[in-house]
Design brief:
ATP hydrolysis activity, Rossmann fold, binds adenosine-5'-triphosphate, 261 residues, alpha/beta, P-loop_NTPase
Length: 261
């Protein structure tokens, strides 16, 4: 499958379905699903629990294959997926025997960057994003928010150009979450990354995204595509402005229809 008109897109998901076999039962996780992410775009997926978001991520990352349909990264429908995306799963594992800096270096180790260069790059990144004082700390001594920052830097060093982030702030308290949202925006601005992002938090999706795909209950299909027409750079206070409140209401109403009682 080849569509030259879509070659300038970072990601094209076309007619993707995924059906799991659970014993003699068939479990349909994804209905035919289409979505795109443009170069440098931040796109969020929001939908009810268990609708199939992580399944879609696994397919885009190349960890799983679709039952039907296809995925293209940078216009390439056939090629190997692995290595083309920086994928941060819901519970990213930091290696407990490695310091924060050595964990950040992992993204480069996988790409076989020489140790000295990897350490230098990791060090620079920790410094640029305000984490240098934690460089020699082990994960067990870091707060949840700090661990997520380290995991995000590691993902960026693996592949900064296209990131799949599966609810990276889901387990954090509200204040830490807000701080990390702003930190992430700063990070992405430096790298001009394209991002596909999963969240359950409507306000988070509005603050960060250019576009939001609202997904139905399982099997996931696209209910609506919402353009977030708020200016950038984004600031937390914008969420109180009339347009943001309007978007929030629109999204909540859509999601409530999909939520089982
Ligand atoms: N390997 C598998 N075998 C069988 N069923 C699976 C498999 N992986 C996922 N599922 C099922 O597919 C459905 C979608 O799961 P998925 O984890 O993609 O949802 P999700 O939207 O990411 O959920 P959440 O929002 O809770 O993280 C669920 O019913 C899940 O039980």
């Amino acid at each position: 499958m080849h569509d030259p008109q879509k070659d300038d897109l970072k990601l094209v998901v076309k007619g993707v379905t995924r059906t799991f076999s659970a014993g003699r039962r068939q479990l349909e996780a994804l209905a035919p699903l289409d979505l795109t992410v443009g170069q440098g775009e931040f796109v969020s997926l929001i939908g009810p629990s268990g609708c199939g978001k992580s399944t879609l991520f696994n397919i885009v990352a190349g960890v799983d294959t679709p039952t039907t349909g296809a995925v293209a990264i940078e216009g390439d429908w056939q090629g190997e997926r692995a290595g083309k995306v920086g994928y941060m799963p819901q519970q990213p594992l930091l290696l407990p025997w490695r310091t924060a800096e050595e964990n950040v270096m992992l993204g480069l180790d996988v790409r076989r960057v020489p140790q000295k260069e990897a350490r230098q790059q990791a060090h620079e990144l920790l410094k640029r994003f305000g984490l240098l004082e934690f460089a020699d700390s082990y994960p067990a001594t870091l707060s949840g928010g700090m661990r997520q920052r380290i995991a995000l830097l590691r993902t960026i060093l693996f592949n900064a150009s296209f990131l799949l982030l599966d609810e990276p702030f889901g387990a954090l308290d509200a204040l830490t979450r807000i701080t990390l949202q702003m930190w992430l925006l700063d990070l992405l601005e430096s790298f001009h990354s394209s991002v596909l992002f999963i969240t359950h938090d409507v306000r988070e999706a509005i603050l960060l995204s250019d576009r939001i795909y609202v997904l139905s209950a399982r099997p996931a299909s696209v209910l609506r595509i919402v353009d977030v027409d708020l200016p950038r750079p984004r600031r937390q206070q914008m969420l109180a402005e009339a347009r943001a409140v309007e978007l929030e209401q629109e999204l909540i109403l859509l999601l409530m229809k999909e939520q089982p009682l």
